[in-house]
Specification:
The chain contains 4 helices and no strands. With 123 residues, it is mainly alpha-helical.
């Protein structure tokens, strides 16, 4: 297999990354603390000396997860503005119209979510 010379640094970086992950995982496994099996008092969960109440498997409201997903969605939208902000002069009017279209789609999604009541905690 004959690779172009420009691929060699990429392969070296990928190899270093894989080796780092492998060494980190193996090091954590062999050098990390060992848990004793059993139901000793030491292995029980605690919170600042306050006795725990209820079950840890109590379900959360779906509104919590919906808000988290919406936050991630609209947060990622902001990430896409960075390349435009850096290169807005080179993009010209065509780039500006593309960003306006992008923002319009997200505003439509935001108003849809708002109208459906996903952002109302009282319901």
């Amino acid at each position: 297999m004959n690779l172009p010379e420009s691929y060699i640094p990429i392969l070296i970086q990928a190899g270093v990354a894989v080796a780092f992950v492998a060494v980190s995982l193996l090091g954590a496994h062999f050098l990390g603390p060992k848990q004793k099996k059993g139901n000793s008092v030491k292995n029980q969960s605690w919170e600042c000396g306050v006795p725990s109440e209820g079950n840890a498997r109590t379900p959360f409201s779906i509104k919590y997860f919906l808000t988290a997903v919406l936050f991630v969605l609209f947060d990622i939208e902001i990430v896409f503005f960075y390349p435009y902000a850096v290169n807005f002069r080179e993009f010209g009017m065509e780039g500006f119209l593309a960003v306006l279209t992008f923002v319009a789609i997200f505003f439509m999604a935001f108003f849809y979510v708002w109208k459906r009541g996903a952002l109302d905690w009282d319901k």
